Amino acid sequence: TLIEDAALPPLGFQDDELEALVLGLREVMQIADPALATAAQGVLDKLRARLPERQAHRLRHAVLTAHRFARPEAPGIDAGVLRRAVWDERHVCFAYRDAEGADTTREVQPLGIVYFESSHCLLAWCLLRQNFRTFRMDRMTALEVLEASFRPNRVPLLRTYLEKLRQPAKTCSTKS
Q1: Are 23 and 64 in contact (CB under 8 A)?
Q2: pTM of the prediction?
Q3: If we measure between CA atoms, which residue out of 96, 129, 114, 127 comes closest to residue 165?
Q4: How far is CA 40 from the centre of its chain?
């Protein structure tokens, strides 16, 4: 049984905020790996249970939704393990097949995960290439989290890489 905690302020959203939450969570349910898609559904269920009836009704019958006719390829690795390695700032090693079909093994410092157009990608500092690289997660296999840590460098490295990605394509190499 859930008991209302009088110390907590009521959970209140403006109508537009609620629509934004619903749309965002439904998009996550469409494009995310299975664990995150399930988590997004759980968040919607919790919101529905905690909102005042008028807003719970708006959540159940939201005007906005997200639908993908072509879902992204499933990651070849456990995305949850990779997310934890990113948060923990631990090196990872994995087998990778590039767009031309060449197989390599990479050790990287994982910086973040991003959804580009139609695939989930790992943004990383590649120790083999000594440069920033983007790896499609559907081309990764045999993920191993290593003991080596690169803490506290993840956030500054990620900021630098994101800035490079914002620059014109000719100055940013993201091929792996």
Answers
A1: yes
A2: 0.74
A3: 114
A4: 12
